[in-house]
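Q: Sequence in, structure out?
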Amino acid sequence: MSVHTYKELISKAKTCQSNVKTKYELGINYKWSYYFAKAILKPNTDIKKGSFADCKNPSGNYISRQISKSDYLKLAKNYVNYIEKNKRFPNFANYGDYQIRPRLLTIFFANILVSYAKTGKLPGEMNINSKCFTKQSETGNVVYDYFSKVTGKSYKTIDEFLAYISKYYVYEGYSDDKYSNKQVIDKKRGNCVDLLQMMMNWAKAKGYECKCIHVQCRVSGTGHVFGKFKHKTNTGGNWITRDPAAVAGGHDVHKVWCEDGYKLAENPSWFLANLNR
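A: Exactly. Output:
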C-alpha cells in the first residue's frame, strides 16, 4: 500500500511553513492540505495516498483570527470527508461565516502539524491569516506605501491627502465594497466604502485615530459611510469629519455627504472585515 509516512508529512509541512515565511508562497501543491488534515486527525500515522481531482474554482474571503482546537479538528474532518466523498477538492471550506481557500488551509494545517511535531501535542488554538501570502511593508501598512509609490509624494495631513483625491479621483456609485485598496489606487475611483477603507489605511499610517460612521441619508434613504479622524498634532487632538466620496464627487475637502443622516453604526463589522484587503 502506497503511503505518505508521518516523517514525510512533517517534512513537507516544515517546507511549506518556511516557504510562506520567506517567499510568501506554499512551494508545494495545495493537495498536501488533505494529507496534513488527515495527519492532524490521526497524529503519528502514515497516511494512505489518494487520487483526487482539482478544485474547479477556488475562492474564499478574508480571515484573520485564532481557531480553537475543537474547531480546527472539526474543520479538518469536514474537509477530509468532502474530499473522500466527492473525489475532488472543494473550492473552499466553510468555517462559520468564512470561506477558506484550499491554499490557505494548506499552510494552516501545516502550522498545526509543525507545532505538534515540536511539542508532542496538538496546540490549543492556531492563527489563520489570509495576509500570510503578502509581504508586509516596512511601515506595516501596504496601502500607505503603495499610495505613496503611485503618487510619488508623502502627504502630511488628511486635507492634503483629500486635495489629491479631489484632483485625480472619481466617485463611482455602487453598493457595498467592490474594489481592493490597490484597485482603488490604480483605478482612482470608488464608492464611499472603498474610498474610505483606502483612506483609513493611509491615515492610520500617519498616526491618525479613525472611525467609520455608517448612516442612512435622510432625503434619499440610502446608506452612506464617512470618517472621523483625530491626530495629536494635525487636528489638535480633536475629532474631525471627512468624506473622500464627497470629495471625489467634486466637492471641497470639508464636504461630508449625509452628515446629518440617521446613524446606523460606528465601525460596523462588515466594514472592518475588508478594511485591509
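The chain has a mean pLDDT of 92.
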